[in-house]
Automatic annotation (TrEMBL):
EC numbers for this chain: 5.3.1.23
MF terms (GO), sorted A to Z: S-methyl-5-thioribose-1-phosphate isomerase activity
Binding site for substrate: 53-55, 90, 203, 254-255
Gene Ontology biological process terms, A to Z: L-methionine salvage from methylthioadenosine
Species assigned in the record: Pseudorhodoplanes sinuspersici
Gene that encodes it: mtnA
Catalysed reactions listed for this entry: 5-(methylsulfanyl)-alpha-D-ribose 1-phosphate = 5-(methylsulfanyl)-D-ribulose 1-phosphate; 5-deoxy-alpha-D-ribose 1-phosphate = 5-deoxy-D-ribulose 1-phosphate
Protein family membership: Belongs to the EIF-2B alpha/beta/delta subunits family. MtnA subfamily.
Protein name according to UniProt: Methylthioribose-1-phosphate isomerase
């Protein structure tokens, strides 16, 4: 998608042909900053510090992290070390493990002298596949928006609520939840997005609002606790969120607060859709609430807030009394029963074991047999 009118992906190979460029998302929306990753440790740090983030994108960065590690040392020992270092960066999004397993499968049985080239090739494919998957998600999700638009009066717009950032900044391009929105907007459908600010890190307010604004999509940032009120007043036609992991029976893990929006949507008969690429499905996990590891991040993210001062400086201030306890759960799980449909690259899939198995039988058997081999 575009930044200041220039087509940009969230990750790229630098002109030197080996180092990896990413946007420094901790500087958005006030500054468009770039980072050059030259080692596996750089990639791991970028993921754990959330300079780069979003389930598909951390998988892509980790894939290049393996390539960078092998460039330094293509031994089995270093490959294992890189895998372990990158896997430990963040626990919840399964795309990270998926991408690392893909890299392992690609290079493990290759001679050392071939490993670097093979790793760069597979990392590039993972990025390109992400883009084409998201385009397909966009096309499939667009049909839902078109159906809603067809029921609207000529002066009415389609109101979509989203949480966190499942936009192009969270993927290589297009985004998952945002792909149908961008396509609807590009087609001339009057669409407006309610953007949950998404405390504590404000991915909605700082990233989703930024990218929608850059693409000219009308949007309004709302405090996280506003969605229920909007739904009660008929101001939300549908919700679309992304996800970090979908279980075999269709439970959806996503940014903390997603569950509350799904509950409010159910109570108000607002369709609640989840957009995801197939690498986000974890067929080895069944009950999302019981089984998905939920990342807990630092208290500081909750106790402070960072923003731009009137004179253009970035400043972080404390908003919690000294001595108060703080909890920072990064994600929650929305049970399948609250989800209207899963927007995937293979169509709209019901959030159920049968439907997921039918749509992704190839993935299901592959994931289970690789898990059994471990
Ligand atoms: C297409 S991105 C899907 C999810 O990764 C996204 O909704 C989300 O929760 C991101 O969380 P983050 O903690 O910013 O990495």
């Amino acid at each position: 998608m575009k930044i200041n009118g220039k087509a940009t992906r969230s990750i790229w190979l630098e002109p030197d042909g080996w180092s990896v460029g990413i946007l420094d998302q901790t500087q958005l929306p006030h500054r468009v900053g770039f980072l050059r990753l030259t080692t596996c440790a750089d990639a791991a740090h970028a993921i754990s510090s959330m300079q780069t983030r979003g389930a598909p994108l951390i998988g892509a960065v980790a894939a290049y992290g393996v390539a960078l590690a092998l460039r330094d040392d293509a031994s089995d020992e270093n490959l294992e070390r890189a895998y372990a270092l990158l896997l430990a960066t963040r626990p919840t999004a399964i795309n990270l493990k998926w991408a690392l397993d893909e890299m392992m499968a690609a290079v493990r049985n290759r001679p050392r002298e071939e490993r670097v080239a093979v790793a760069y090739q597979r990392a590039k494919e993972i990025c390109d596949e992400d883009v084409s998957i998201n385009e397909a998600i966009g096309r499939n999700g667009l049909t839902i928006i078109e159906e809603i638009a067809a029921r609207k009066k000529p002066d009415e717009r389609v109101n979509v609520l989203t949480h966190c950032n499942a936009g192009w900044l969270a993927t290589v391009d297009w985004g998952t939840a945002t792909a149908p929105i961008y396509m609807a907007h590009d087609k001339g459908i009057a669409i407006h997005v309610w953007v949950d600010e998404t405390r504590p890190r404000n991915q909605g307010a700082s990233l989703t609002a930024f990218e929608l604004g850059q693409h000219g999509v009308p949007h309004t940032v709302i405090p996280d606790n506003t969605g229920g009120h909007l739904m009660q007043h008929g101001l939300v036609d549908m919700a679309i969120v992304g996800t970090d992991r979908v279980t075999a029976k269709g439970d959806v893990c996503n940014k903390i607060g997603t569950y509350l929006k799904a509950l409010a949507a159910k109570d108000n008969n607002v369709p609640f859709y989840v957009a995801l690429p197939s690498p986000t499905i974890d067929f080895t996990v069944d009950d999302g609430v019981a089984e998905i590891p939920i990342e807990q991040r630092s208290a500081e993210e909750v106790a402070t807030i960072t923003g731009r001062t009137k004179d253009g400086r970035t400043e972080t201030v404390t908003i919690v009394p000294e001595g108060s306890g703080v909890a920072n759960y990064g994600f929650d799980v929305t049970p399948a029963r609250l989800v209207t449909g899963l927007i995937t690259e293979r169509g709209i899939v019901a959030p159920s074991r049968d439907a997921l198995e039918r749509a992704f039988a190839d993935h299901a058997s592959r994931r289970r047999s690789s898990e059994a081999a471990e």
